[in-house]
Design a protein that fits this description.
With 138 residues, the protein is an alpha/beta fold. The protein has 3 helices and 8 strands; from the N terminus they run E-E-E-E-H-E-E-H-E-E-H.
Amino acid sequence: GLSPYESEDEDTALGIAGAGTATKNSDGSAAASSSDSSGESAETEYSGSVKVLNGAGVSGLAGRVASTLSNHGFDTTAATADSFDYSSTRIIYVGDGNRAKAEAVADTLGLSNVVADDGTYAGEADVIVVLGADMANN
């Protein structure tokens, strides 16, 4: 679903449902920090470019997910994946510096399967989301 708020500043629950605390980056975008199992603080960036690919074959799915991510501060585009045979959604970060952005995408979508790009998506976006059948049911 889409956020009922026009601005994240209106969302009083932002950061409460997750494991972290919401803050604002210097550019005004939202960020959340959380601690991993080693006790180190990991920054999650709610910014950057995200390309959402429909790999489930459900009409309008990529557009809806892209809109949700856009409402959370990401610069999104929607397109069709190379096939509609994806059973599970994949969140792929392109370049080591974009892992925090991918973690924020995963957090926004309620997912946890973040992986590094193997070179397939270089130059397309900071984060690629390939939607699978698991998201078609949400």
